Amino acid sequence: MKKLVFIFLTLISTNLLAQRPQTEQGKGSLAFWENLTKLCGKSFEGEMINASENDQFYGKKLVMHVRTCEDGKITIPFHVGDDHSRTWVLTMEEGDVIKLKHDHRHEDGTEDRVTQYGGTSSNTGMSKVQFFPADQETTSLIPYAATNIWWITLDDTTFSYNLRRINNDSSINVKFDLTKEVDTPPTPWGWED
Questions:
Q1: What is the CATH number of the domain that holds 101?
Q2: Three-state SS sequence of 32-61
Q3: What is the pLDDT of residues 11-55, one digit of tens each?
Q4: Which residues pair with 179 in a beta bridge?
Q5: What is the pTM of this model?
């Protein structure tokens, strides 16, 4: 009888494990992506966490706009006051990993000298956080950024964009309140409606 109970419990636990959501089976990137697409077309105001007066974002209105959600690509312009030069570009790559690139433009739409830097997540991550260590393109373009790690967090109320340089104490942390939509900012420089 004990043997039958053990076999029965083993079958039940195996069945429960097989039915776990994909996020628990290493597909956190897919759940993260799906949740991010739910914000498409919406804009949210953010704030710098631990900002100092020397920070380039200090005292400026910070707005993210989940502008486009195409098949395998999401663009999120990051507006800093009247500066509409920055767009975060997320791409779903083979193996269900996400790539983050920073598209920087001048007001006339031309690419900045320092653009298209970022990294690809080293694994599928989790449904609420994705990490992006600097890739070789970034290291070649900006040698001091070789130790950069970006990460994005996402839950029902907050989106945060974060950067940490492993070799020093500098960091950027911007937290956006997803409970309050704001007006859509102007079209980012270099992009078309």
A1: 2.40.128
A2: HHHHHHCCCCCEEEEEECCCCCCCCCCCCC
A3: 333 343 344 444 344 589 999 999 999 999 999 999 998 766 666
A4: none
A5: 0.84
